[in-house]
Amino acid sequence: MASRKKILLKVVILGESSVGKTSLMNQYVNRKFSNQYKATIGADFLTKEVTIDDRTVTMQIWDTAGQERFQSLGVAFYRGADCCVLVFDVTAPSTFKSLDSWRDEFLIQASPRDPENFPFVLLGNKDDLEPRAISAKRAQQWCQNKNNMPYFETSAKSGSNVEQAFLAIAKNALAQQNSTVDLYNEFPDQIKLTNTQKPSGSGDSCSC
Amino acid sequence: MASNIEVEPGATKESVLIPSECLENFDHMSSSLEEIKSENNSSVGSTYEESNFVNSNTDNFEDAIDKEENGSTPEYDLGNSTEWTSKNKHIFVLSSAGKPIYSRHGNEDKLAWLFGVMQALVSNIQSSDDTLKSIHAGDTLFVFMNKKPLILVAVSKTGECVNQLTLQLNYVFNQITSMLTLTRLNKIYEQRQNYDLRRLLAGGERLIDHLLDFSEKEPAFFLGAVQCLPLASSVRDSISSAIIGACHKIKNLVFAILLAKNRLITLVRMKKYYLHPSDLHLIFNLVQSSESLKYSQHHWTPFCLPRFDASGFLYAHVSYLADDCQACLLLLTVERDVCDVLSEAKQKIVEKLRRNNCLEPINESIATPEETAVNAGFAEIRHYLYKCKSTAQFYQPSLAPPYSKEKMRLIEIYKRSNQQLHNTARPLKLIFERSANEAIFSWDTTAFELYVVFEPLIDIACAIDFVTKLLNWVKKREDKLFHLNAPTF
Ligand SMILES: Nc1nc2c(ncn2[C@@H]2O[C@H](COP(=O)(O)OP(=O)(O)OP(=O)(O)O)[C@@H](O)[C@H]2O)c(=O)[nH]1
Ligand SMILES: [Mg+2]
């Protein structure tokens, strides 16, 4: 049974409201797109299997709500993520400017063990729309200062680059999981009998 | 009704097991005093009755099923959906981060989205410094147990109450602990919140699967007791002394347990150390779910007994006595590398048992089913459970019609009665209940619990008369039906 090691990756998607987080997921998982905007309430959850280097992994995607009133939920959602995806809208400058605060908030709340090297991926979405407000160059510059965060320009509408972006996300998340050391042999577990207390609730003690 | 009954079958001065007080304190482990303290401080949990919160979830749920039925959408993959949704009980285990660890039915990878929802529910309530304990939605009960670093969830249509489902979840948690130790489990998540625990539990799902089936079928679990293999007390004593003779010189051997057919034959323990029935249930489960043990000469495995000490492993030498005697012997030590010593001890035990002619009575008892109540002379009694509290042991006769083919219905009757007696809001001492199918007499005293299922038309006076006779009957045979000694090395 131990031959096929299953791996599940937790991926959290963050960014301002209506940048297209839900649309990206929907495009990636269901290959569907809708022009209608339905704000996400709390969070949505999706599962997607991907194959990376002959290995099947399951991505558990946490599509969070960008609207301010749901922000307090974040704490619970960020915990134990393997990768964080930041999304902005290339036609809306404010959604780019807030990236820093999304990233900082994530690192504070999720408090990963090695924040410097925690895998983030940046997506500039709505690539199909004009006029552009944030150039690819500007976004890339921002990424350079953030430990060379990978950057993709996507369109949830046309589907362009979506598959590639999520594959990169899965790879980065997997790298994070693989760096897990062999936890099993780290701790000695021998019981020292002298330390073992007599369990509470044992009624009789006359034999001692 | 005679409330000061003097007959207390099966009671002894010193118990071989730690007495268990029904469900109370059942989830407390000996090495988790901190947890007990903090739990006592914040015992105000919440029960959400059909709140909006719930409805949105149920909506999603039905949504999911709809979608599945109208051509599958991969994100809401419920495996074989109608089969999956028609199960009357689901058990899930996940990490605090919401990563799936175990699902009783279906493929937990495919259900990953659902685990996310469960984590969101639990942590959303937690973020307002409260605890989500249960959700009641129509005939479905959701029970949540937030037992750091894991979250356990039961979704049930079985009619079991919150306490009973919590008890079952607690067993699942203890089963996981038995494979890893609590210390290790905590360390793993301290180091890696994102850890996929299935890596370490690979192969262990089988134990959990079996435990769940086992705990649903066996009264031992809700009674918090074990049943003994009936044996003349002289035989049981001579078995115990054979074990003591072969083992008393072995350092650090904590428990020697002999069992057969899901019944305890004897338990010898190191002075000062006691075994809790719930730990013994995990041992029974280990033996039962490992058929392969029968074909190997012996088996050596680390095994943590969470109630005994959740922080470390004991090492278990497990073997069947002989080809001609299918009783299973477990020698539990704190030493990692004394397998050979224990194999030798086992050989000595078997030789001694053979010489003292102990194997035949064991075999005979294994082959002989317990008498049915009717055969024992209780014409109106179909079945009963008698639990002696001070020794955490119980006795039940063989199944008789109409339950021979409806064991689960009988178990449900008992579970319901047990629940009524131990209802935390309104505990009862004595219940006589009549339905079209049977009459049930349940009685909780300081010394014992008794559940008797009668023919439906029996009148009360007659029932009480039978109960008194039954208690005397058990009392007369207590030497044989119970393990009345508490042997030590
Ligand atoms: N043209 C175009 N429109 C897009 C694209 N992605 C999303 N949209 C539209 O943008 C709107 C918002 O998309 P959502 O995916 O719901 O946004 P969100 O980030 O999930 O928003 P919240 O759930 O409120 O956080 C919708 O009307 C989408 O149709 C894209 O790539 N191109
Ligand atoms: Mg959304």
Automatic annotation (TrEMBL), chain A:
GO cellular component terms listed in the entry, alphabetical order: late endosome membrane; lysosome; phagocytic vesicle
Keywords assigned: GTP-binding, Lipoprotein, Nucleotide-binding, Prenylation
Entry's localization field: Late endosome membrane
One GO MF term attached to the UniProt entry: GTP binding
Superkingdom of the source species: Eukaryota
GO biological process: endosome to lysosome transport; phagosome-lysosome fusion
The keyword Protein transport is annotated on this UniProt entry: no
Record family assignment: Belongs to the small GTPase superfamily. Rab family.
Listed name of the protein: Ras-related protein Rab-7a
Species this chain originates from: Sitophilus oryzae
Gene (name only): LOC115881257
UniProtKB/TrEMBL annotation, chain B:
Gene Ontology biological process: endosome to lysosome transport via multivesicular body sorting pathway; protein targeting to vacuole
Main function: Plays an important role in membrane trafficking through the secretory apparatus.
Any single GO CC term annotated in Swiss-Prot or TrEMBL for this entry: Mon1-Ccz1 complex
FUZ/MON1/HPS1 third Longin domain residues: 380-478
Chain ranges of the FUZ/MON1/HPS1 second Longin domain: 251-350
Family in the record: Belongs to the MON1/SAND family.
PANTHER family, alphabetized: SAND PROTEIN-RELATED, VACUOLAR FUSION PROTEIN MON1 HOMOLOG
Pfam families hit by this protein: Fuz_longin_1 (PF19036), Fuz_longin_2 (PF19037), Fuz_longin_3 (PF19038)
Lineage: superkingdom: Eukaryota
Boundaries of every FUZ/MON1/HPS1 first Longin domain copy: 89-211
Name the record gives this protein: Vacuolar fusion protein MON1 homolog
